[in-house]
Amino acid sequence: MDEIAAAQVPGETDDRSRYYDYWLAALEKIVAVKGLVAASELAARKEEWDRAARETPHGQPFALPRR
After folding, report:
1. Measured between alpha carbons, how far is 61 from 49 in angstroms, rounded to an integer?
2. What is the pLDDT of residues 35-44, one digit of tens each?
3. Measured between alpha carbons, how far apart are the two ends of the chain, in Å?
4. DSSP code of residue 10
5. Domain shared by 17 and 46, yes or no
6. Lowest CB count within 10 Å: 6, 36, 44, 54, which one?
7. What is the gyration radius of the CA atoms in the chain, in angstroms?
8. Residues 25 and 44 in one domain
9. pLDDT of 6 strictly over 80
């Protein structure tokens, strides 16, 4: 719970609409602290997911580049 609270923007009203964003930020921090994935690799993968989400027609599965 502390990680989620720390992810919130100071002064932001907690209306629970961004809970997933806070949870994801907390998970990314844990992954980084434990050294499970390099920060550059995590950033690259996030960009790939974002690009796939923007470019994939609604209702179709995402296609991510193979590694």
Report:
1. 12
2. 999 989 999 9
3. 34
4. T
5. no
6. 54
7. 15
8. no
9. no
The encoded tokens of residue 14 equal 């907690």
Measured between alpha carbons, how far is 63 from 24 in angstroms, rounded to an integer? 21
- pTM higher than 0.70, yes or no? no
> What is the Cα–Cα distance from 43 to 45, expressed in whole angstroms?
6
Q: Given its phi and psi angles, is residue 65 left (phi above 0), alpha (psi -120 to 50 degrees) or beta?
A: beta
Residue 1 has pLDDT above 70, yes or no: no
Residue 34 has pLDDT above 80, yes or no: yes
What residue type is 30 in one-letter code? I
Residue 8: what pLDDT? 67
Question: Which has the closest alpha carbon to 66: 58, 52, 57?
Answer: 52
